[in-house]
Input
Amino acid sequence: MVKVNLGGCSSFVKDADYKAYVEKALAAWDVLDAESGAGNDFLGWKTLPVDTPEQLIVGCEAVRDDWQARGVDLVVTIGIGGSYLGARCAIEALSHNFLPKTGAPRVVFAGNNLSEEYLAELMDLLAVSNAACVVISKSGTTTEPAVAFRLVKQYLENKYGRSEAAERIVAITDAKRGALKTLATQEGYRTFIVPDNVGGRFSVLTPVGLLPIALAGFDIRAMLRGAADERAAMIVKSADNEAVKYAAMRNLLHTGCGKAVEVFVTYNPKLTYLAEWWKQLYGESEGKDGKGIFPASVTNTADLHSMGQFIQEGSRVMFETVITVENSNRKVVITSDPQNLDQLNYLADQRVEHCNAMAQLGTKIAHIDGGVPQLEIGVEKIDEYNLGAIFYFFEFACGVSAYTLGVNPFNQPGVEAYKKNMFALLRKPGFEAQTEEILKRI
Ligand code: PA5
Output
């Protein structure tokens, strides 16, 4: 289960102020619990860990088994934003850093950018693979995944024929609406539904996350169990509720102490995409109405040698939220060397994880001394169960935190601005007036 440690903030805030923010966070918890706040038609994520039907999990496992039988060694997962970050986060966190997983296809991601080189190189990979594709878009109309999917679909059809290609494509989209739904129905693709009441960035425990994670060979049942256990802790109203503690402190540091930036810190490169997922969740949920904490991230100790200087001594605008993992899944001991030319014998017989932990502790003390408050989010280890718990914790805490801040956590009106300009510049039918307008400005 997730544990929040606020000890690294105590020298920056007064006890009475923290208590006042806990009261605000508890009021926000009530709003989330009663489903009485802005965006309350997007709260389906709250009960996903306990009401995901067995049939859905079996459906994911059936695709996995079918593609295994076809010898599929590459799954291209197409989606952007909330339609890919959760799956990518889990797969990167659970995968070997260097080696492929035995008995499972490689899962790669596309449709999250418009880089021509990226897509050309994806085609190179398809040419040497036995491929299948999961295309994910709740709206079914997003440009980036639509472009990637058109190319991958045509490639699969040319290589395998239209009917075999249809067996190698799964669509995850809205139950009724959107171009992807129309296409999937016409081509007879297996289809999973993104529930109406779950927004993209809260969708990792729907098929959007579950199917790619299952295809990569990981245990989605354990993930849902972890999320369910975390939910049981989250739905208890208390000043000790870990989400209430996190929401109260980050809002106090922001509104009460003027901290504008939250830096999400990990000490394991496998968690870099956890930070990416978290940044979208908090950035899109809170950054609106001229409000919000800017979510940034670093992966240490690598980034102590790049961003560390700024965090230690630059503008005092940030606090840190550090993911602390209690147990490493692997053990590496530093050996002794009779010559000791590298002068590392003082570390002989120590685990590398001990060095990592001391780097983390040393950094904590240095950053606190440098004026950077530290929140710590602790988990026991990185596995499917704990990732499920982490996902649920941050989603629930995001709802509490955004209501504490006074914004609707579940919309993202600002995302449309670039799209309108891009469509106008690309001369999309229907955007003629905007095209005239924007051409005058460039
Ligand atoms: O959180 C969100 O709602 C967004 O990030 C969406 O997930 C993203 O824009 C992709 O949208 P769609 O799934 O409709 O293609």
Summary: The beta strands are 3-5, 74-78, 106-110, 131-137, 169-173, 190-193, 261-266, 294-299, 318-325, 374-379. The CA atoms of residues 253 and 259 lie 6 Å apart. The first helix runs from residue 15 to 34. The pocket of 5-phosphoarabinonic acid is lined by residues 80-83, 137-139, 142, 145, 199-201, 284, 412 (CB under 6 Å).
